[in-house]
Amino acid sequence: MKLSAIIPSFRIPFLVLAPICVFLGASISYKEQGAIDFCLLAIVMLGGIFAHIGVNTLNEYQDYQSGLDLKTIRTPFSGGSGLLCRQPELLPWVKTAAIVSTLLTLLIGFYFIYLRGLAIIPLIPIGVIGLVIVVSYTRWINKRPFICLVVPGLSFGLLMVAGTQLVLSGHSSSTPWVIGVIPFFLINNLLLLNQYPDIDADKSIGRNHFPIAFGIKVSNSIFALFTLCSTLLILFYISQNILPALSALALIPQTLAYIALYGAIKFGASIGQHPKYLAFNAACTLLTPLTIAITVFIN
Fold first, then answer.
1. N or C end: fewer C-beta atoms under 10 angstroms in the chain?
2. Residue 6 in domain
């Protein structure tokens, strides 16, 4: 009963990001070797989901402890689930979920090293960086604007994509790092825009992420730059045969980011009152790498 009660703290609608990034890494692995171990892929998926649950539940726990949960105006895309505001007695259970999911992620990582041996030693620094991000994101990273800006894309767009390819292929490759730069920019933008509605609340408890440190106009410029970079990279990679021509389909969901940019420019910090723009940004972040993954897999 307690487990079912704390499920909202997992932020389930957001957990789809991890499987998409894993699928992108798996598609690259499949393209390189022409085969894939689907049982192993399922374990990688679990590892990615547990890592994401670990971040989400730890964030929920620490945001309630700091008092932030009581100050934020929640939207479907920002401000947490609000679970602990409604049921504060679940605080130790959310903390336990954060610890257990992080430990399960570690166990899966150790299993991969045991399974593959020295061939995937590069997985160790990927795992260590990922663990540091999970543990330090809420209390440390959120106070350092430039690190906070790029850590989401680093975690999902690069580490998760490259780690998946490494585990499935049994060897490292530059390709997932190169292609992973596309979701890197998009995922950074996802978290960047979702911080706008929480600027005042976040500032009140000592956070100092990018929109707080540099303001909305500069943040909009960064959002525009990251969006443009992801679009240009898709076109460039297609021209260099890094991506198949069919990956041009990813430019369709990319247009949603430009609509979100319009909303960010027009509404600024009050964009939370117009959640459709946050939804457009989230859809772009999910559908663009998913489209790339599918087109790479079937090519």
1. N
2. no
Helix, strand or coil, per DSSP, at residue 75:
strand
Give domain status of residue 151, yes or no: yes
Residue 2 inside a domain? The answer is no
Residue 1 pLDDT > 70: no
138: in domain: yes
- Condensed to tens digits (0 to 9), the pLDDT of residues 149-195 reads 999 999 999 999 999 999 999 888 999 999 999 999 999 999 999 99
Helices (H), the chain: 2-6, 17-33, 38-66, 83-86, 91-116, 123-136, 145-152, 161-169, 175-179, 181-194, 199-204, 210-239, 251-267, 275-298
Q: Does residue 286 have a pLDDT over 60?
A: yes
Q: Burial letters for 244-262: b for 16+ Cβ neighbours within 10 Å, e otherwise?
A: beebebbeebbebbebbbe
pLDDT one-digit tens code per residue, 42-84: 999 999 999 999 999 999 998 888 888 878 877 777 767 788 8
Is-contact 188 153, C-beta < 8 A? Answer: yes
Token digits for 148? 């906070």
Q: How many domains does the chain have?
A: 1
Rounded distance between C-alpha atoms, residue 160 and residue 17, angstroms: 10
Tell the burial category of 150 from Cβ atoms under 10 Å away from its Cβ (0-12, 13-18, 19+).
Answer: buried
Most confident listed range (10-19, 49-58, 127-136, 257-266): 257-266
**CA gyration radius for the chain?**
19
CB 285 within 8 A of CB 292: no
**DSSP secondary-structure letter at 81?**
-
Say if residues 260 and 281 touch (Cβ distance below 8 Å): yes
Domain span at residue 189 reads 15-298
15 within 8 A of 50, measured Cβ to Cβ: no
Q: Could you give the CA distance from residue 206 to residue 209 in angstroms, rounded to a whole number?
A: 10
